[in-house]
Amino acid sequence: xxxxxxxxxxxxxxEVYETCFVPAIFEAWAGPVADAAGIRTGNRVLDVGCGTGVxxxxxxxxxxxxxxxxxxDLNEGMLAVAARAEPKIQWRQGxxxxxxxxxxxxxxxxxxxxxxxxxxxxxxLRQMWRTLAxxxxxxxxxxxxxxxxxxxxxxxDIAARQCGSEATAVLAAPFVLGNPAELAKLFIDSGISGAxxxxxxxxxxxxSIKEFIRIEVKGSPLADMLSDEEMETLATESERALSEFVxxxxxxxxxxxxxxxxxxxx
Length: 266
Prior knowledge:
Rossmann fold, 7-stranded mixed beta sheet, 9 helices, 9 strands, globular, disordered N terminus
């Protein structure tokens, strides 16, 4: 369960993901990723590793009635939530390394914070590039190194002491492609020339430290890995360690930066 490629969640966790993680983390990135992909009215767009669909919904807003958006994900729970949130998008279950679409099917291919979990990144990028039409644009977002997300580094350090290696690996998994040189090499190895890696600064916001820990556990594979006692221990130590990020409202706001990689197909 700890390996990035096995980061799958239950239906209940997918609901938590949409209602909690999306507003706290992912919603703010949908606009920048769609901007990076240059999505316009009438475009055909594919969102690979769409999750519950926050980026696909932003793409739909931009393409209008003349366009088309397809969201693809391996996880049935995520897709079920996505379909309820926006039935106008075509939701497909599938593997990023074997996309079920013809060559040159889309003017934009996008992926937001999913690429880190693909078992074969090179094969997945080749598939995304294959389905991209000439003059189309690819935009892939991944998290920057964990040292640019200090709150999560603190949480990983606590988990390492209190919860064991599997739980620690789940919390650290989102940051595995944080090195920009290694990230760029994946695109080169995929035969994608001219890819540009750009660092974007961002932040995450949760109602409280306790709610942050609850969401991190219940909306991820940790839900099946940690006991209630272990979760309480994690929350108690985090209350002290993350206090520097608490604002007067009681919310917790932490820095969390990302790389967006873009490439245009000639």
